[in-house]
Design a protein that fits this description.
Layout lengths: L9 E6 L3 E7 L5 E8 L6 H15 L7 E5 L2 E3 L4 E4 L12 H9 L3 E5 H10 L8 E6 L3 E7 L2 E2 L32 H4 L1 H12 L6 H9 L3 H25 L3 E5 L7 H14 L18 H10 L15
Parallel strand pairs: 1-4, 4-7, 8-11
Antiparallel strand pairs: 1-2, 2-3, 5-6, 8-9, 9-10
C-alpha cells in the first residue's frame, strides 16, 4: 500500500524470543531513535505487550503516527491476532497483539510475522517478477517466500515457516512446535548450544559461549556450529531447487557468529543445487540488523494516520 503518514515518524517494533528492538523511523527511512530490551518470554503475553508498549514509549511514541510490529508466530495481519505460536513466548498463541498494543499506546498498530516483515524490505529492491527465499536463524528458524514479487501468506498465514521443515540432522529431536525432527530443533541458536552440550558433556549457557570456544579451537564446539549450519544450508538448498529464487537471504543472530557458520551453511547450500542454479549463493540482508524494525515501520505506514488531537486507546 501507499504510505499515508506524510511527515510523521512511525515506530517499528521487532519482537523476537529473546529481545525487543524498537526504532522511531522518519518518512525517509532514517532511524531517529533506537531502543533494545529483553523479551519477558516466560512471563506471559500481557507482560510481553507491556514490554512492547514500553519500547514504543522509549523511542518517542508521542511523536509517532502509528506502530508496526514484526512479531514471532503466525500473525493474522487483518485482525492483529497471533493465530499460532511455539512455546518460545509463553501463552503467545491467541494474543490480540494489535488491539492490545493500541489499548496501551493509543496508536494504530499493524502486525505481521517478523521474518515476513523483514523480507518485505528486501523484496522492495527486486523486480516485480522476483522470487525471494528469506530465512532468519536466531532463537528459532523463521522464513518468508515471495513469488512474482508478492510475499506469500498461505493458508492460516503459515507460509514461510522454514524451521518446521523435516531435517535429517534433527531426527528424533523435539521441536518447539510439538513435533519432532524439524530444522529448528538442530539449527536455531539454542538448538546448536544444546547439541554442543550433548556431544561434549560441557556446560554452555548460550550460542555466544559455543562460538567463543569454537574460535579458540574447541573441536566439539566447531562441530556443533558446523552441524547446525549444514542442516540449515541443506534445507535452503532443497527449497532453492523447488522455488528457483532470484535471491536467497539468510538473516538473524546465528549467522552473525562468524565465518565458520556462514561458510558451512553456504557450502551445504551449494552442494544441494541443481546445475542451472549453481551460481546462487545466500546473502546477508540488505537492511542488516535493522531489517525487521524497518519492515515493521513499513507496515505502520500502510495505516491511516492518527488525527493530531486523538489521545487514548483507539476503538
Amino acid at each position: 500500500m501507499t504510505a499515508r503518514h506524510g511527515a510523521r515518524p512511525v515506530i517499528g517494533l521487532d519482537l523476537g524470543g529473546t529481545k525487543i528492538a524498537a526504532a522511531l523511523v522518519g518518512p525517509d527511512g532514517t532511524v531517529l531513535a533506537r531502543h533494545t530490551g529483553p523479551t519477558p518470554a516466560t512471563r506471559g503475553a500481557e507482560e510481553v505487550l507491556d514490554a512492547l508498549a514500553a519500547a514504543a514509549q522509549a523511542v518517542g511514541a508521542d511523536a509517532a503516527g502509528a506502530i508496526g510490529v514484526a512479531a514471532a508466530g503466525v500473525i493474522d495481519p487483518v485482525s492483529g491476532t497471533v493465530v499460532s505460536a511455539t512455546d518460545t513466548i509463553r501463552g503467545w498463541a491467541g494474543t490480540a497483539l494489535g488491539p492490545g498494543l493500541t489499548a496501551r499506546t493509543g496508536l494504530p498498530v499493524a502486525c505481521d510475522n517478523d521474518v515476513r516483515a523483514a523480507a518485505a524490505t528486501e523484496l522492495a529492491t527486486l523486480s516485480d517478477d522476483a522470487v525471494l527465499l528469506y530465512a532468519a536463524v536466531g532463537t528459532g528458524v523463521g522464513g518468508a517466500v515471495a513469488v512474482s514479487g508478492r510475499l506469500l501468506h498461505g493458508t492460516a498465514g503459515v507460509a514461510g515457516h522454514l524451521g518446521h521443515l523435516p531435517s535429517p540432522e534433527a531426527e528424533g529431536l523435539p521441536c518447539t512446535c510439538g513435533a519432532t525432527g524439524h530444522l529448528e530443533a538442530i539449527a536455531a541458536g539454542p538448538a546448536i548450544t544444546a547439541y554442543y552440550r550433548r556431544i561434549s558433556g560441557e556446560s554452555a549457557d548460550s550460542l555466544h559461549t559455543v562460538a567463543q570456544r569454537a574460535a579458540r579451537g574447541d573441536g566439539l564446539a566447531r562441530s556443533a556450529v558446523v552441524h547446525g549450519a549444514r542442516a540449515a544450508g541443506r534445507a535452503l538448498g532443497g527449497l532453492a531447487n523447488v522455488l528457483a529464487p532470484h535471491r536467497v537471504v539468510v538473516a538473524g543472530g546465528v549467522p552473525r557468529i562468524g565465518a565458520l557458520y556462514r561458510d558451512a551453511l553456504c557450502d551445504a547450500f551449494a552442494a544441494e543445487l541443481m546445475p542451472p542454479l549453481r551460481g546462487l549463493r545466500p546473502a546477508a540482508p540488505l537492511g542488516g540488523a535493522d531489517a525487521a524494525v524497518l519492515g515493521a515501520a513499513a507496515l505502520a505506514r500502510t495505516l491511516s494516520p492518527r488525527p493530531a488531537h486523538t489521545t487514548g486507546a483507539q476503538p
